[in-house]
DNA sequence: ACCTGAACACCGTTCAAGT
DNA sequence: ACCTGAACACCGTTCAAGT
């Protein structure tokens, strides 16, 4: 494994075990057995290292969504599974999720954020299938996908931050996702 | 103005001008003219100071929502205005918004997060009015409000992070909010 | 190319005193 | 009660060298 990759792996591991603040350049260096400033030969700064972790995971998410898209199930079922992947990823790796979807370090820099768009594009393709099947409303695909994507992110983010355990309400994000999909159905048979 | 309040005000000001990382205990102390460690006589640590800023703004948001609720307009119009308040606040004070709705410092500690629930409760009341008027679907109020709240947060958060400027799509969060409300209408007259 | 030790300018936080 | 200076253990980052 190349040094770059070892650094990224170490950073990801520290992220998982100790959260973002645990990912110090010094700790990463120690984890791979270098002196405290050696990482600067591989990454411009701490931000760049974190971005490398994020891009690796954007790619992994993209693959996961692409796999879901190829399943032989109803479009709406694909969408549900894709969103479940999203929620599960966030629950299993909360710090990574925050890095990818809430951290200012990853914010729009230049062309870099293309990687961040790929998972979105996969979900958009699934949403389009749902729209073609009449399972989601006939509005511009990008807008609808943006809304769904944002809603799921919001549910995850608020849940992780403990800002939404209002009474019994939405204890977990998956319940919110279910409701979202249900309410977006263009035609609903009444109740139950 | 009491010293506590001056510290909170200075912290808020630094937050607005330089972002979260600019709110160092030392900078806050300097801003109010104390020595670098004097703030510790007023707040247990940096996190507690940030929480004080957040609670102040949770209260302000609660008031703003409460005012909207008392307007003499259609329920759905109230909801639109309330969500506009939300989006505008986030756009005008992005760092504060992140502190209130995305920062782990504010995450569920103990009873403190009651303050964070008050804006939610105001929105829930408006949503209930909409439901009573038949302008929003007849599902449990807390769940529906949670979904709307989370969706708006997600739109704001993804927009701020530059993670959603997919082509023309959702350039700004307000467009997403519009679409959300439109799609949540239980009865829609076709198109246009 | 890749690694190292020393150093700088910051942090949050604590402590022993001062008024 | 409220404030202070000195100090500790961290950071990110830079630099002059070493192999």
From TrEMBL, chains A, B:
Keywords, in A-Z order: DNA-binding, Transcription, Transcription regulation
Domain HTH tetR-type: 1-61
DNA-binding residue intervals: 24-43
Chain segments annotated as transmembrane: none
One Pfam family per UniProt: TetR_N
Gene3D superfamilies registered for this protein in UniProt: Tetracycline Repressor, domain 2 (1.10.357.10)
Keyword Transcription among record annotations: yes
Any GO molecular function: transcription cis-regulatory region binding
Entry protein name: HTH tetR-type domain-containing protein
Species name: uncultured Truepera sp
